[in-house]
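seq as requested:
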Amino acid sequence: MEEIVQHLTPLLKEVSGYIFPNEIELHWGLLIVLYPYLTGLVAGAFILASLVKVFNVKELQPTYRMSLLTALAFLIVAPLPLLGHLGHPEKSYEIFLTPNTSSAMAMFGFVYAWYLMAVLLLEIWFDFRKDLIMWSRKEKGLMKWIHKLLSLFSSDVSEKALRFDRKSVKVITIIGIPSAFLLHGYVGFIFGSVKANPFWSSVLMPIVFLFSAIVSGIALVLLIYMIVTPMRRKPIDMLCLNKLASYLFYVMIIDFSLETLDFIHRVYESEESIHIISELVSGKLFVSLVVIQVLIGMLIPLGSIAAAKLFKLPDELKKLIYFVAAILVQMGIFSTRWNVVIGGQLFSKSFLGLTTYKMTFFGLEGFLVSFIILIMPIVILYILFKILPPWDEARQQVT
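struct tokens:
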């Protein structure tokens, strides 16, 4: 057998475009692209909220509660792509009954449960507890009982209880920051630890995933704030908006620097896979990686936000620049997830040929299901805004 392999190896090196038959069909499709994209939005939105409670960034106060509810809405939907891909979501509870600590994918259930119940829900509950009590006292009908139930029928609004709430929120937020890093950083760890795939195997992969998540989360909250505030016929706080844009700009610089460093490192190493990766980037991934991810999703937003900061532009023009930049950033981050998940499966293990991903419209792995999953957090967020109004005036009405 060894003699046959030694005889075929030099012959395979002469072959171009060869790919093994079992690699023609990709194992991970659009649903797995959605999974890191959604978890990234969760982590980014929570980290933005932590800037208010932990780092005392007062300008971002109007978006604090909005960020928490946004993180919750997307966290509720985040496991659906994985469950849909598995094909038997009703069996997902078994990962808790028979935990497999050696499987990073299996441990997601525990990370998810910790972040949802021990971090995010607790922080939202302590922050809204007083408001829930006061709302239930003034309301009638169904909403009265919804708020009573959400407050766990609590009635203590003494200064001692409120002081405990504020301390609890700060402690939970401090715990939540590394938890958010763990939630999305481990997704990058899953890809980065696949040594057999040179497109994924990089020590920088978890860090790049994490900072791109922060970028996407800040951009999402900026978009929601700019859409919801005018719909409520309220003026946009330019101090808050400028601060959001500033943080988005700074994190984008870090993210772009890390991705550039990762690219330089790959080129410098020049392993045997560099030729097929170069062919992949310059061919099948050129539009999604070079054009959408780098140019449209990174360089244009960076340049436009920098221009808005350097030059004295009217507020209305700044709003337009920030809004368009945030949309382009979302396109770029989604393209990043696409390039990692789909792009990493497009070349053969022989490093000689490329395959093609064919996306269907219908079916569990099709575009329609993925689009529905992507819309679901927006619907959930709308319901959360109705039940738990995050606006400052809503809080002032109960004081």
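Confidence is low (pLDDT under 50) at residues 11-15.
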